[in-house]
Structures are given as structure tokens and as C-alpha cells.
Amino acid sequence: MSNLKVAVIGAGSIAVHRHLPEYQSRQGVDIVAVCDILEKRAQEVAAEYGAKAYTDYKEAITDSGADLVSVCLPNYLHAPVSIFALEQGKHVLCEKPMATSDEEAQQMIEASNKSGKKLMIGHNQRFVASHEKARELIANGDLGKIYSFRTTFGHGGPEGWSVDGAESWFFRKKEAFIGALGDLGVHKADVIRYILGEEMKEVAAMVESSAKENSDVDDQAVSVLRSENGIIGTLTASWAYKGGENNATVIYGEKGNLRLEDDPTYSLIATYTDGTRVNYELGQIQTNDGGGQTSTGVIDHFVDSVLNDTKPLIDGEEGYKSLKIILAALEANETKQNVTIS
Ligand SMILES: NC(=O)c1ccc[n+]([C@@H]2O[C@H](COP(=O)([O-])OP(=O)(O)OC[C@H]3O[C@@H](n4cnc5c(N)ncnc54)[C@H](O)[C@@H]3O)[C@@H](O)[C@H]2O)c1
After folding, report:
1. Running DSSP on this structure, what letter comes out for residue 73?
2. For the chain, is the Cβ count within 10 Å smaller at the N or the C terminus?
3. DSSP code of 65?
4. Is residue 292 over pLDDT 80?
């Protein structure tokens, strides 16, 4: 069987730190195209991977002969570029948040269904060992009935991550559509659904833009969620957790609690009502400064789903369910009303 060919669209931080190295280390995959609107950036990154450089995403997708397309672009381009690639018969791995509206997300799913090609959303937190283990423990009834949770993701902001630093698109609503809530909050929306195995039905939220100058998107968000079976919890996201990243989740149940990514040594700590404590050393979550797990697992999963013709763990429908929580939080903040997710 010939190698799968991949085109990576957007040559910024997520492409350079995660997608490109993970495709390169994967047997049977050739990186054939790297596209960035900035020609110099496209050329430099393409040269590093022996790929052809493009500045026009349509050309990169059609002319390169790619089978797979990674969409590593500002949020407003996720839907148009993914839909174009799917219509061209390519399998698509699109970064999060999946889209900027219900309509866009639905159109992406429709394009995938119509073409019969895979659509996966880059919710890498599902592949974090502590999250996988917590899901397993909860599904096995280890914690009994689940009552509540708190989940958070915050760091100093995208100026410390984006290839364009403080000048980044992340701070411009026209390109980002949403700030910390969509950048970080959507990860926790996705992972809490996954860990609990439940859908969120009701959302309340307060969202602020209080920390960043030269930005017209949110940088703080606190939301309260209620699941279909009455589990309630908080989901918080921030671009101003000064002095250190926080990516922790705590889940409280009938028989005890689970603390995930909340301790520097043990990525999962289970504490039970009889006083026993189990420390799991499962390796740490990836951080923006290069710490933790070395691979996201996302690229391998995407390539495997294409090779084995299996449904990706986070397909368009799954990405959309997580996006809906974030859209509902924005609406709840604007209307000052709880929002019910249909
Ligand atoms: N899964 C994760 O953990 C994770 C982490 C960080 C970012 N992301 C997501 O990845 C996406 C990209 O973020 P990033 O951090 O790489 O941003 P970035 O600012 O570092 O890079 C974006 C790149 O896109 C290029 N670009 C902009 N418009 C373009 C166009 N029309 N055609 C081609 N290239 C264009 C820019 O020049 C830049 O090089 C975002 O959606 C972000 O939310 C995901």
C-alpha cells in the first residue's frame, strides 16, 4: 500500500509543535504540502519537512495530491477550509473549536457525510492518560453515583503560544470569534462529556474581557453546567492564570473523588470515603511550554481511523456537541439566562 499524503494548512504553533512532528514520526505518512498565507513562513516550514510550500489553501489541498488535510488555522477558517477539503474528497483533521456557529458545524458534518470522508476534531485532551483512566473508573462504578465536578483550563494567554505573539489573530473577534472560552474552555467541555459519559443540558455563564489590552474577545469565563442526569459542575477558562498553567479536573461521587492533573507527581488521585487513596502515575498532560506527554495521540488516531476505516473518537458530531456548550455559555452570558441545549 502506498503512503498516505498529508497537507498541513496553517504553519503556526499547533502545526509546528504538534501536527507536523507527529505526522513525520508516523510510518506510512508523507507530508506533501505546508500552506501558510505568509510565504516566508510556508517556505521555511515546508523546507524543514521536505514538503512543497503553498500560500493558497485551495491549491495546497487540490494540487498536492493529499489524501489527508490538517486544518491548523484561525477559528474563522475552520469551516470553509474543512468543507472545501471534504468536498475535494480529503479526510480532514480540524483543530478546535470546530467552528464559529451551529450552521458551520452542521455544514461540516454534512460535507463529511456526503463525501464519505473522515472528519475529526483535535480534542487532544481525550487522549490524556488520566482522563482515559477516570472515564474507565467512572464507567466501572468505582465512584458510585456522580454528583458534581469542577474543571478548569487557564494559562497566561496565547501571546505566549501563537507564532504571532501579542499580534495574534487569537485576540481579534473577526478571526477568533471567541477567546479563552473557545480556546481552552471547549477542551474542558469536550473532556468532561467524555469522562462522565453524559451530555450537558443546561448552561449558565459569566464571561469577561478584563485582562488583555488590544483584544476584543473574552479572556475569563466561569460557567455552570448541568448534565442530563443532574450532575452539576463548573467549567472555567482563563487567559490570565498568572504564574502557572492549571488544567485540573475534580470529580465528586458517592464513594469518593478523583483529582486529575491537579498534582505534580500523580496525574490521577482517587480518594475514597473509607480513607484509602490511590495515586496513579500515568504521565503528565502536555503543557504549552513543552512539558508532559510527548505526543498528543491525535495524529495517530486520525491516521488509524483512515487506514482502518473506523469512526474517529471525536468526529464532527462529537466536536459539535462540545462546541454547543461553549455557544450556550456565550448566549447565557449575553442574555443573563440559563440556556438549555437541545
Ligand atoms: N488542540 C490544541 O491543544 C490546540 C492548541 C493550540 C491551538 N489550537 C488551535 O489550532 C489552530 C491554530 O492555532 P495556532 O496556535 O497554530 O495559531 P498560530 O497563530 O500560531 O498560527 C496560525 C497560522 O495560520 C496562518 N494563517 C492565517 N490565515 C491563513 C490563511 N488564510 N491561509 C493559510 N494560513 C493562514 C498564520 O499566518 C499563522 O501562521 C486554532 O484553531 C487553535 O485554536 C489547538
Report:
1. S
2. N
3. -
4. no
User: From the CB of residue 164, how many other CB atoms can be counted at a distance below 10 Å?
Assistant: 15
Separation CA 320–CA 199 (nearest Å): 12
339-340, strands of its sheet edge to edge: 277-280, 268-272, 256-260, 249-253, 146-154, 232-238, 220-227, 200-208, 339-340
Q: Are 250 and 257 in contact (CB under 8 A)?
A: yes
- pTM (two decimals): 0.97
The closest residue, in CA terms, to atom 31 on ligand 1 is 37
The response to whether residue 124 sits with its C-beta less than 6 Å from ligand 1 reads yes
CA dihedral over 271, 272, 275, 279, signed as positive or negative: negative
pLDDT tens, position by position, 197-215: 999 999 999 999 999 999 9
Specify which residues 148 forms β-bridges with: 232, 252
- Compute the distance from residue 63 Cα to the ligand 1 centre, in Å: 22
Q: Rounded distance, CA 30 to CA 99, Å?
A: 27
Say how far apart CA 113 and CA 51 lie, in whole Å: 30
Reduced to 3 states (helix: H, G, I; strand: E, B; else coil), residue 257 is strand
Residues in Cβ contact with 241 at an 8 Å cutoff, skipping those fewer than 6 apart: 154, 155, 156
